Amino acid sequence: MADETQVWAGGCECGGVRYEIAARPGPISFCHCGQCRRQHSHVGAYTTFPREAFRLVKDETLAWYQSSERARRGFCSRCGAGLFWDPVGEARMDVTAGSLDQPTGLRADRHIWVDFKGDYYDIGEDGLIRKTSTEPGNQSKVEP
After folding, report:
1. For the chain, what is the domain count?
2. Is residue 73 assigned to a domain?
């Protein structure tokens, strides 16, 4: 398990965007909404943390896309890596789990928006929590 005082760092593939998180991120959520599937070419894997713990270290290639009225998505304009899900007006934000430097010490605990999963795959029996778009805990995500 990772030390609670550590700083989690991450960034894009080409190094144009780097960030740090000075609080332990939450468990990984696998999001099956249509926007995440399009953004990541499959499901999105995100971890949440307090916005105040976030710091951009390097942002020379960071671009933002307003994906809905409720959130914007940050990505690298050079290598295309999806990095951030930033809900408007909330005290938290998310980073993509794959953009974190290893080791993270984090584990997945849920699948969300499972009622919008792609028809080309099944969610196996992995023991993780499953939430639909109408269940508590999914109201902060954007609709597919």
Report:
1. 1
2. yes
Examine residue 138 and state whether it is found in any structural domain, yes or no: no
Rounded to whole angstroms, what are the CA distances from 36 to 24, 43, 45, 57, 60?
23, 6, 9, 25, 24
> Given this model, what pLDDT does residue 133 score?
87
**pLDDT tens readout for residues 96-133:** 999 999 999 999 999 999 999 999 999 989 999 999 98
Domain with 49 in it: 8-130
**Rounded distance, CA 132 to CA 90, Å?**
21
Closest by Cα among 87, 88, 101 to 21: 101
Per-residue pLDDT at 141: 45
Task: Give me the CATH number covering residue 36.
Answer: 2.170.150.70
Higher pLDDT, 79 or 4: 79
HSE-CB at 4 with a 13 A cutoff on CA atoms is: 0
